[in-house]
Structures are given as structure tokens and as C-alpha cells.
Amino acid sequence: MSDSKGFLHWLFFKKWHPVPSVGSTIALFSIIGVIFVALGIVITVINNHIQEVTIYKYDQKCSPVEYNKKCSFIQKLDNMKAPIYFYYELENFYQNHRRYVKSKSSTQLSGEEISLSDAEKYCDPIIYNKDLEVWQQDVYITEQNIPVPTERKPDDIASPCGLVAKSFFNDTYALSLSGKNIALNQTGISWPNDKGKKYKRVPNSESTQWIDPENEHFIVWMRTAGLPTFRKLWGRIEQDIEEGDYTFEFQNNYNPQMFAGAKNIVLSTSGPFGGKNLFLSIAFIVVGVIQLLIALAFLIKKIRAGNSFGQKNE
Amino acid sequence: MQQESRKIIINRRDQNILFPSNAIKTSKYNMLNFFPKAILLQFMRIANIYFLVTAVLQSMPLISPLAPFSAISPLVFVLAVSLFREMLEDYRKHRNDDMINEQVALLYNNYVFQKIQWKEIRVGDIVQVLEDFTIPADLCILRTSDENGQCFLETSNLDGERNLKTKYAITEIQEQMIHGKFSDLTGELQCDKPNNRIHKFQGMLQVDLKQYPISNNNILLRGTTIKNTKWVVGLVVYTGHDCKIIKSQGKMRYKSTHIERALNIIVIVILILQAGACIALSFFTAYNYNPLNFEGKPQFIYIYPDNDKNGPVVTAVISYFSNFLLLNSMVPISLIISLETLKYLQTTWMEFDEQMQSENQPFRVLNTMIHEELGKIEYVFTDKTGTLTSNNMEFRQCCIKGIAYSNEDLLEIFKCDNIMNDLELDKYINFFLCIIICHNVIVDEKLNEFQGSSPDEVALVKAAFNHGFKFLKRTNNSIFIKVREQLLVYEYICEFEFTSDRKRMSMIVKDMQTEQLLLFCKGADNIIWRRLDMRKHQEQELQMSQVSLKKYSKEGLRTLCLTYKQLDEIQFQDWQKQYRSIQNEVALDPEAINKLKEHESILEHELMLLGITALEDKLQEDVPEVIKSLHDAGIKVWMLTGDKMETAENIGHLCHLIDQSTKCFRVNQEDQESILMRFKKIGRSIQTYEKITKKTNKVKKNQLLQQQLQWLREQSSINSQIRSVHKMKINQMSVKSEGSDNHSQKEIKRTFALIVEGDSIYYLLHSKQIQEEFLKIIPKCRTVICCRSTPNQKAEIVGLVKKNLKSITLAIGDGGNDVRVGILGKEGNQAAMNSDYFFCQFKHLWRLLFVHGRWNLYRTSYFVNYFFFKNILFTFQQFYFAFFNAFSSQSFYEDGYLLNFNTLITAVAPVYYGVFDQDLDVQDTYIKSQLPRVYSEFKYHKLFGRRAFAKWYVSGLLCSALVFFVTKQIYLIQVNSESGRVDGLWQLSISCYWSSVFIVFIVIISDSNQFTWITFIAYGPLSILAFFPVFTLAWNEFQSETKHYAYDWLGNAKFFIVIILILGTVFIFKRVVNIWQQLEYPTIIDKVRKEKQELDQVVEQSLPPGSSRQELSELEFPISIENQVQGVYNLSHNMGQQRDM
After folding, report:
1. Domain P-type ATPase A, which positions (chain B) (predicted)?
2. Contact A39 B1057 (CB under 8 A)
3. pTM for the full predicted model
């Protein structure tokens, strides 16, 4: 091209033309295949160590089923190693609905006042206190999740406003074994970046807000789920539990008929890859095995056909 | 056509005010109207209207699933870029206009010439132009500094010709003005309305009740430059935008390429699909509003208020538009902008190519939009003179009075002195007098050389000069020549110029020594022969001349017949009187021009033959090589020439258009019936030939296989020198590869050539029946030569093929076409300036087609396919997600991520591929020799069409389903770490987004054929690293919705493991498909690569220890095309020897 053999020449004209060959494919597939299968096995092992108990439709376990009442049931549990995570799970609740996801004001949640126009823009259709649920209108829920009765004007802008806040899940739980209470740690259940940064209470929170935005259950609720069936972390049991019949006591506030679904309790331990999920490990093993099989097929074909593999003879 | 004419009153500005000023304005805007006008112009484009509609929909919170800025910002971006470009362009135009308009001219006013600016010049003004200055407006010459009223002109601005042209003042006016004053000049000029014919002018100047016809010879066009003349004074005829140079500036015709046409259909199909998807989704929305209760109460009371006014129907309609916005990127509107950018960059890169330039002559691309057409050319139409040949004429031979002489013979003859008195030499003298009198060559006194628009004439005058006949000067009415030391003067009376219809030129002069009127005429032999006076010639002389003519044309020489005639003084004056009156008539009525021509030809009868000249026009470098490659690539080559059949056929042999295997069919019948019969017969014989060839080849093929096996057995025992191994290996390979492509040299191959002559072409163009037969034959003919065709016929033939065969054609030389390639040459560059590409040598066509054309075709095809792939991969996840969010048209991606997917993150890599990827190393000698074979592949194997597109579309669908469903399944519960915390919607979305982005990268990386350091930069820092960490972390600080969330995801092992799983799956899928295709359905490219590898291995093995590959590269590859070219040159050398004998 040119006589100049400078840096630019080298930069532009030093070329590689990699042509994928059968040999390199066999090698590559074998290596990746082995890695994938190994990963799959590791994940399976980890997965098998995770214990998970689901109590379906726990609200149905009391009879008669009444809401805004305390209720309890007994559930047999196996040995579990700490930490054990206490989740509530909702089925068929669309936290990812367009209108729902949009309906909140990040400004307001981060502790700033918003104008009426902003409230209308971001929080529609829940703008004023009067748009909230009846139980939310004259209550202040503290950071420790304790409702305190308060007076508020119905025509003030609701704080926090919006559909997500309004539909706040407010069941509470307690766990005991033969009368001995088992502590449920409810701190540290939200993401570190949320509390105090994205969610901040205003100075006179008690009189203007119906819930403290730094309430961790609230923060957990506000991180909207991606799929219609989802779990939310409610508490942490920081001691190993033994086999036995445990009493679950709960305040049955949240009515699943509202979303035509169900509410469940899940107790689960966790691993480096989170909760129990067989799919990930199976997927790795399947993909890995397929790769190894392809590598083997190519190898057999190559040995059989000798050197002329890949040349179509007529 | 406007019939009216323009009437200009000399020197009276007040009566010429209706004509426009001399200012030119190419700019579109001014300060005030820039914004409204430019924006309005932008919205004339469909794409921008689409953008606007999207933006409007998006800014309605009710409808929009996204923040308004994500729609408005692309619109603003596109508009800003376009406006900025417009502004720059217009600013440049303004400055250009000002520079032109403010040049200084000299205006005659009150007896002196005053300085004024160009823009102040008006029609009817009298202006002076000095030597080396540019003419400010179209002028009619009134006076020049030369006493004979001559001036010289360089017209390179107008038509690219560098040689000087002579223009004249009207003799009478010149005389009058030498003594009188310009201010006394009163009268008017009547002429055509402004038009774009730069070689035509007709007018009538009326001064003091006397009329003078004005022709093109008296006109100086704006933009040309005065040379070798101190000054010229002229009358302004056309100003400003009426000037011929501006009128003749053609507008670039928009050409759409096959990819664009296919793209349009695909876009429409996808738009329909998209509309279907939107309708389906909005139906589901309505259903989901409340599946049980259609009275209008919403199902989700935690979402819709109890008193929701909208109801299911309105919600569905809103949902339709929301979904429309979400699925918008199924037809990526940014594709249009990206394609334009891509092609602009391709152009720049092509123009950089040093190998497309030679002798510092540039390679230029004037139409940036049609590069991919170069990779699919099926027909090449080429001119002969100046395109295949170098247009560098050399006087070789001549035939005087029936006796043939070579140039050397003549030198011998003229050795003796005092030839003027030698009667025997009289015939030679007349022969050369004709050469040096009857021509349009001028002498450039500064450079001391001959210049003229016709290289033939220059070559002849030069040859005469070498034999002692010197042309000195031509003035307005005399011609000065010098024969040996004797100065002779001829009075110039008139000239009938050469046109492609007349094919002859005549000049009438008066010998001042003998007072004799002479007519010299030279032209094409068939025209001249009819006009010879048969009685006065000896039959033998004519026969001998004919023999020489045949011989010359067989050798591919250009012939001209020279004749003269003595005119009778009285008869001539009669004739001249009539001629003048017809000339006057023509000035008023241009239709009468034919009458003038008829009258001219009255004199061109009963001519005496002086002799025949034969000029050699050398072939350009590498022409046979290029033509052979074109044939190998399956491209049909047509040569369109004005030459005789024999000459044309011979040139055809020389250029390898016709070789030993070619069966030539000649069509030179002259009536409709027999031409039709001829074509039918040709059709039948082609069929017969094809059958026979097929049969013999079957037999031969079997023998060949046996031979190959035999050879292979022998070969294994041979371990001789590298060179021989080399040779055999390649031979073996070419046998093997060509055997499968039906190209084998050892097989009988039959190719057909059609040679059609001028009169037959006429019928071909005018009879439907003949056309039909013709069109049946030509797809089978590798070569077609049209001889004796006029430029007009050439254009019509090209049109005929293009229209009826629906093939992509390329015309090199001139003529309108899909792709026009101009060649800078001696015969004027006007054609080059109107072409799509131009370069200076025919041989560059090889690289233009086989390298750049093919590259750009596959690159652009890949670019478009890939663009759709990545958008389908990206957009369809929105569609799947709708099934998990109650069809609420929630966007799966956050605004910022959605917006930047196409415009930022995945933008660089495909553009890089589209400009720089190279599938074969064309520097390699072996691969170079195989490029024509590779080129032919794209004819059958469509890179961009419904099938290829469907393949990409389906893989896009598969990948998007894989990404979405696998990710969704893994994140069913979004507990991803030991902390037990639960993540939300955006974590799911980001995981899919990362997978999609990396799939997009991994696909393009595994499809890249070439890696240089630039590739690593384009794919590394500019793509992958730009996405992560730069974009990811930067956006993490801006976005309110997911602000700082990235830290949660990035600290999570599962997040990466999921992406690795998905990428691994896509990668094996891709790799297996690639390998499978390569092994089981190898393309020619794959085969060539394989052969190259094997070749390298053989070379490596047979290298003696200690020697390096470097040494090897110095060895010649035995199959290089040069060998064949040498053969051709040998052929021409042999001919030269024959000639000498």
C-alpha cells in the first residue's frame, strides 16, 4: 500500500483474519462446556443447602377469615440455620403496571415538599389525603411500623402520595415456639442506598405525613417488583431454629381480594446466589452438556473424515 | 421549449432592466429566514415527520410510557445535526457567492473602462476582460487586442479541457471598433433564450442597420479564462443564473439502490406487523381492564380509582398509542441517519485508497449513496476511445495514392531537399497540406506545442511537423504554414465542422500563391467513399486504398480519409451567397439548421482522394486483465464504439473481449427482415453449441477426476523445489475449484460474442420483434460490441438493456446508468463531472468493483440486517413483558437506557464494521486472483433480501425470547444475594439490557472478518467500555428512578453469572451455525479461504530449513494474471512485426 512503515501503518495494516476452524471450535466448546458444567454443579450444591418453607394463603388459616384482626396458626418447621429470612409473597399483584409504577413522586419521597401541580403530574390518581385508604387518613405510621392516630386535613396533598404508597402492605407478624418469642429483626431489610437517601422524612413528619418514609417496610414496598408474583423481605431470624410446631401470629390487615390473588409467607435461608432457584443450575448444566456433545460430535466427525473434513467432495 | 428569443439593446441599461443581474446566489437562506425555512425544509422529510409525531405522542403523559425527553431528544438531536450541517453549507455558499460576485470587472462607461464588481454587470453592458482573467458573464466578442480579432480561451472550468480554443470577433465590428468608439455602437442583438447548450449559440447582431450572424465562435462563456490575448471587449449577453455554465450544471439524479428498494418493502411489512402487535396488545388491555365485567368497572382497584372515567375502550385506545411508542424501534428510524453516516464514511474511506489513484490524479466519489450497487454489477458498458484506449494517438502509417507507407518510409522520402519543385512528390504535399490546413488545432506559443480538442488532429499535425510541414498560425481569415523553409499563406474562407452525425470536416481556403479555391475534407471512410469522384480516380488506386483500409482496421488503427477538391470561383460565390442567406435565416429560426447542413454538403461531392492516415490509439494499462476478470466474475461487457466492425473486433481481441474460445456472431445486415432472421439463427446456434458443450464436458469431467487422482498419488511422493510444488498445488486447486464452478480451463468452454453494426442498431432500437430476439440472446453473450454507433445510440442501447433485463448496469465513459463511472481523459471531463465515480484509468475499475464494490455490498447488507437484528432483540422484550404487566404498556427499560441503546451504546460497532471490515485479505496474491470468482457469488447468494432478512429476524426473535424468559425464570424471586434483600423491576430489566447489549457485541465480533488495532479500539473502548463502566456509572448518577441502584447490581455475582449463561448460549448457537454453514454449505469465500490456508501449509512444509517466508514472497505466483496479459501484449507485438514486414 505504501512505503511508510510507521506506527500508523502498523496500526492500520497489521491484520488478523481469524477463520473459525473445526479444531478451535472443539477446543473452545470443550473448555466452555467444562466450565459451564462445573459452575452448574457448584450452583446445584449451593442450591441444595438452601432451605425454604412456604405457607400458602396464611390468611385462610384462621376461621372465620376476618380482616383488621389479630390471628394465629401453628406450623411445623424443620431445623433451619440462621440467618433465616422472613418474606411475605403476593400472587397476581401487578406492581409493574404502568399506571402503578409511575404513580409516585421521588422528590416527595426524598424529603422535599412538592407543589400541587407536581402532585397531580406524578401521583395521579392519589393526590390528596382524602384519596388515601380510610385507615391511612388519620394515622401516622412510625419508622418502627407502629400506627399512631393523628388528625390531618383531607384536602392537603397526601404525603407520600401515589398508588404505590397507598397500596402499602401492612400485615405484621410475630413468631413463637411454645410461648417463647422468636425475634424477627426488621432493620436492614431495605437496600442501603434507599434509606436516608432516596427515602427521607420531612422535619415535621408526624403532622404532615401519614407514614414515615424511612420506615423500612415502606421502602421495601416502594421498590416495585418486576413480576406479578413477588416476595418482599419482612424480617430476619438471627438464630438457628429447631424442629417444632411454631405459632405464627399476624395482624390480618391486607385483603388479597383487592387484587384477586393470594398472600403467602416464605421462610428461607440464602446462599451466594440468593434464594432457592433450580433453573439457574439446570440451565448451566444443560448448556454445558450441549457444548460438550457438540464438541464430541465434531471430534468424531473429524476423526472419521480425516483431514478432508469440511470439503465437500462431488 | 421556448421559441421566443432575447433582444438586447446595446449600451442601454434602461432598456435591458428586465434581465436579471449578474449576481449569483447558490445559498438557500439568509440571517432572518434561516430558522423558519430550514426547519420547514427538514420537515419535508418523511422520517422527520415520523419523529415529530412520535415526539408529540410521547409528550402526552396519558399515553406515554416514557419520559417526554426520550422522544424529543432524538428529534432535537437529528434536527440540530441537520440544521448545523445546513448552516455550515450555507455559510460556505454565502462566502463563495460573495467571492464570485465581488470580483472586479471593467465596465465601459463614458469613454473609459471603470472598475466595478461582477454583480453590477447588466445585460447590454460592454465590458473588458484582460489576459488571464475570468470572463464575468456570457459575452459576445466586439473587439480583441489582436488586430485580426482573435482570442484564445481556456475552458477547463466549463468542460475540463485544458487546451486553448480560438474565438473570433466579427471582422466588420472589429474593424469598426479599431477606429470608432464603443459608445457610438448602437444596435441590438437578437439571440436564444438562456439555455444550457454550451457548444451552441445562434444570434444576429444588428449594428447600424447591418446584420451579422453570431455563432458559438464569437461567444465567450462565463467561467472561461482569456489566454495569450492582452484583452477582449465584449457585449454582455447572459448574466447571472442565465449564464450557460450555471444552466448546464446538472442536478444529481437520485438513484435508489437494490438494498434501499428491498428495505422499503421490509419496512412496510414490519410496520404492518407492528400495528398488528399494537392492536393485539390493546385488545388484551381492554380484556384485562376487567375480564368478567365489561360494563366498565376496572379489575385492579389498587390501580384504577373506583370512579375511573375512561372505561375499557378508551383505555385500549390509549394503550394502542402507548404500545406504538414502545414498539417504535421495531422499525428503527435511526437507521436512515445511520445509513447516511455509514455511506458518507465509506465514501471518505474509498477516496483515501491510494491504489485507486495514479499519477496524482484523484479518485472521486460524486454520488455517495450507491456504493453497494458496485458489488452486484451484471453489465458493464464501456466506451472505447479514452476508456479502453489511452487516447494518446500516434501516427503510424498512411496510404497515399494507393501505396502504403509507414512513418519511417516517409522520413526516407523526405530526406531529399527542395521537394516543392519535385512534381513526383506533389501527391505527398497535398496529402500533408490537407493535414495541416483542415483542422482546429492551435499553437500554444508559450509552451510551443500543438493543442486541440481532438487528439487525432493534434497527432496528425504533429506528424506533419516532423515531416517538414509546419502549421504556424491561424488568424481570423488566414492560415500560415511553412513547408520546409517556404512560408505559405492560405486565405480561410469557411469551415464545416465535425459532428458525430456528419463524421467529416471540411475547410475551404484560397491559395494566396495561385489564387485557387480549395476544399479540404477529411472524415470516416464510409462517408468519404460515397462522396469520391469515381471517374477521376484510377480503379487500381481505389482498390489498393481499400486493401490498406482493411489492413489498418484489422490492426486496430484509427483511419481517416483525406480528400480535396478544386472549386470554381464563380460557382462558389453563388453558393456562398445562398449560404449567407441561410445562415441569416438560421439566426432567426434555429429549426433551419438542417437546411444549412444540406447546403454545406453540396460542396462535399466529387472529392479527390489524397490518402488515408492510420493512427494508433494505445490500449490503457492492464485493460485485457481487467476485462478478463470482469468475464470471470460473470459480468457481461459491452463495448460501444464508433469504429468500423473490423477495427472494433480487433480491439476486442486486443482487450481480451474476444478470445480463442469465443464464438463471434456478426450482425451487419441492413434491412429489417434479414436482421430478424439473423438474430433467430444466432439464438438457435447458441442453443446447439450449449448442448454439445455440456455433453463433451461430462465426458471430460470424468477423465479429469481420474487425472486428478493420478496426480495426487504422484504428488505425495514428490518433494521437489518449492516453486514446482507451488505451481502444482495451485493447478490442482484451480482444477478442483473451477471444476465445481464450471470454469475449468481444461474443459471446453464456449463463450459467445455478438458484434452489431450501426445500421442494424437502428433497427434494433426501432423494431419490437428484433428487440425481443435480441434480448433473448444477450444474456448468453459474454461480450457485445456495437460498432459505428452514435453517442445517442449508445445511450439508447444502455437504456434498452437496463429497462428490459432489470439488471444493475455500469457505464464507464459516459451515458446514463445505474452507476456511471467517468474517466478523466483527454477528450474533455464534462462526462466525468456528471458521473457517480471518476478516476483516471480503466484499470481502477477492477479495484472499484472487486474490492470496494464487493466490500461495500456485504458491509452495507450486514449493517442493515444487523441493525434490524439488534432492534428486534431489544424491542421484542417489551412485547413479552406486556404479558407480565397486565398489558399496561409499561416500558421494560428505563428511559435513559431505552434512548441510548441505538444512539450511543450499540452505534459505533456496526458503523465500524460497515466501513472497515474486510472479508478477504486482498493484498494476498492468491486471493487477489480469485476475487472475480468471489464477486460472482453475490449474484446468486443474496446478502440482503427476504430470505437473508428472515434469517436475521428469526434469530433476533429467538435471542430476545432467550434473554427475556431465561432472565425472568432466574429472577422469579428477586432474592439475589446472601443478604436476603429483594430487588425490583429495574433489576430484571437491567439484567436483560446487559445481556442484549453484550449479545449485540458478541454477534458483531464473531462476524468480523478482520481485526486490526482499530477494530480493538472500536469494539473495546468505543463500544464495550463505553457501555460499562462509562455509560452505566454516569447514568447511575442522573436517573431519578434507578439512581445509585447500579451499585446494588454490580456487587452481585448472580447478576454476572446470568449474563454469562445467556451469552454462552448465544455464542455456541452462533458458532455452530457458522461452522455448519462453512462446512456443509461453503460459499465461494469459504472455499477461497480454505484454499489459501492449504496453500500456506504446502509452502510452509516445503520450505527448506533456515529460509524465511520473506524470501518466498519474492517468488512469483505462477497463476498471476500478468501472464495472460503478457500473452496479449505479445500478440500486439507480433502484429507490429507483421506490419513492418
Report:
1. 102-230
2. yes
3. 0.81
